[in-house]
Write a structure and sequence with these properties.
Blueprint lengths: L1 H21 L5 E4 L8 E5 L2 E4 L4 E2 L4 E3 L5 H7 L4 E2 L5 E8 L7 E9 H7 L4 E2 L12 H4 L2 E2 L2 E3 H13 L7 H4 L4 E2 L6
Parallel strand pairs: 1-8, 7-11
Antiparallel strand pairs: 2-3, 3-4, 4-12, 5-9, 6-7, 7-8, 10-11
């Protein structure tokens, strides 16, 4: 009986030690937010159709994809438009490893970078593209109403490893915001 108690005590102590060294004792959440989000009604090749009547083309893009599960997921909570024209959305990230302490993860994503990384839409980008990124079908994979954490971290590496040469405005008019007043 004492041997069983000692064994159980050692097992609990070892589990606690491992939890402290290698993980977390409780599930954690990573929830990022948008500043002043604007609702997105949908999109066309010309850009995102915002609830306030504007159409926003993503930086470097000449046409958005006709269909994109990732773009739908990343715009369903609205978008944030920075002064430099960067359009950011939120996407749920699915952490598929049972040992991963992250149970809820909502991440900010640059929509231009996300679509370039997943090779969706038509874009002009003269920055260096990493050659060792994962296959495109895997990068597009959506799981349980979210994006794979492996694909999301791949996007972060992709964005950080590319060159920083800007796309000429005469080629793609990056970040152009059109309204009914200035179209034509």
């Amino acid at each position: 009986k004492q041997i069983a108690l000692v064994t159980a005590g050692l097992a609990i102590a070892f589990s606690a030690f491992c939890m402290l060294i290698f993980g977390y004792p409780f599930p954690i959440s990573i929830v990022e937010k948008l500043d002043d989000p604007i609702a997105v009604k949908g999109w066309a090749a010309e850009g995102l159709n915002l609830a306030d009547g504007r159409t926003v083309q993503l930086a470097g893009f000449t046409a958005l994809p006709e269909k994109s599960e990732l773009l739908s997921l990343a715009t369903k909570r609205g978008v944030e438009i920075a002064d430099d024209g960067t359009v950011t959305g939120l996407i749920s990230i699915f952490h598929k490893c049972g040992n991963d302490p992250v149970k809820k993860h909502i991440a900010r994503v640059d929509l231009s970078e996300m679509l370039m990384y997943t090779e969706q839409g038509e874009y002009v980008d003269n920055r260096v593209m990493p050659q060792y990124i994962t296959p495109v079908d895997y990068r597009k994979q959506c799981l349980f109403d979210g994006w794979s954490n492996t694909a999301h971290y791949g996007l972060e590496r992709f964005s950080n490893q590319r060159g920083t040469v800007a796309v000429p405005e005469s080629v793609s008019n990056p970040g152009a915001i059109r309204t009914a007043d200035n179209e034509g």
